[in-house]
Amino acid sequence: MNTAPLQFRFIFKRLFSSFCLIYLIIFSAYFIFDFLIHIKFSLNLELFTFIWNFFIQKFDFFCSLSSLFAILYTISSLKQNNEILALLTNGIQKITIIKPFIFFSLLMAFLTLVNSELILPYTNTEPKTIKQSNVYINHLDDGSRIAYHLIDNQISDLYWIKLNREIWHCQKVLKINDKWIGKNVDALKKSVTGALEKFDSFDEYLLPLPASIITDKPNIQLDENRSISNLISLLINDSKRISSDKNHLYTLLYQKITTPWITFILMGIFLPYLFPFSRKFQPFYLYALGLLVFLLFQSTTKTVSILAENYMISPFLGLLLLPSCLQGALIYRLCKI
Questions:
Q1: Cβ contacts of residue 213 below 8 Å, gap of 6+?
Q2: How many CA atoms lie within 13 A of 271 on its CB side?
Q3: What is the dihedral sign for C-alpha 196, 202, 204, 205?
Q4: Beta strands at 166-176 and 179-190: parallel, antiparallel or unpaired
């Protein structure tokens, strides 16, 4: 029976154990902070459900951050204890030492992809709120959407999303002669900074909605929670989606395709620091640089996503092509070690 070499198991065990510990610490601290500020649950099944949903919703972020620190910790510990020098002295090739890091990065990419494709689409961070709020969402034939509260067949707080940048809000909606009349209507438009600003108001407004818009059950699924396959299906088959909405879906799609490879990209950036020998090696600077690179990567991805949704940059170029080129360059760099 073939087993992994001893040095592979030694390094991978340190990587995975440090990842689990770091993930538990970060997740617990973040969850307790968020829980104490925003949520009040009794200690029952509802709290357990919320913890599970919170775990799934934040998995991508916590996984990439914990993986980064696990990689940095393993690199620094191997260098400080002169274990790398001992392995190389015993004739272990560099590619053999690198393999556990590559396998670990691929494992994290696989787990992130499984979470995004099979678990996240069926998870809701606020099941109690959505269940009790009776929120409904409908796609209309013209490509716009409406979201509203429905209680005892009475519609209130209707949001008519004509475009991603234009939303109409009605406090109450009445049906008169098969026509929908909105009461206390405010027309909102998204400014350049992204804030919604009111540009018109009406005491009453005739809404161009179909005579029957009441559905039998809530249809709540955030686009951010959709799987990659579901996003592709929507972009191909859903003719009701307006062009600006499709641009939003393309941005989400390319972002979800790129996210699983964040750990691999970070690994490729810092793994070359494993081999240079220096008696003045300071782990603090490595951790500081790692955190800086992670924050820069996250902020850049967020900025590119905003620009892509607003047609200021191509989603394919900013969220798929550039990260792919970066990943290719890092793979080439690893091959040269």
A1: 138, 146, 180
A2: 26
A3: negative
A4: antiparallel
User: Rounded CA gap, 87 and 78, in Å?
Assistant: 10
Count of C-beta atoms within a 10 Å radius of residue 241:
17
Q: How many CB atoms lie within 10 A of CB 194?
A: 10
191's tokens: 């400014």
* Strand ranges, E, within the chain: 135-139, 145-151, 154-163, 166-176, 179-190, 196-207
Q: What is the total residue count of the chain?
A: 337
Report residue 70 as tokens. Answer: 């696990």
Over the stretch 157-191, which tens digit does the pLDDT of each residue have? 888 887 667 888 888 888 888 788 888 898 888 77
Q: CB–CB of 185/330 below 8 Å?
A: no
Domain boundaries, the chain: 6-126+244-335, 135-207
Burial class (CB in 10 A: 0-12, 13-18, 19+), 43: exposed
pTM of the model: 0.73
Compute CA 207 distance to the chain's CA centroid, rounded to the nearest angstrom.
Answer: 35
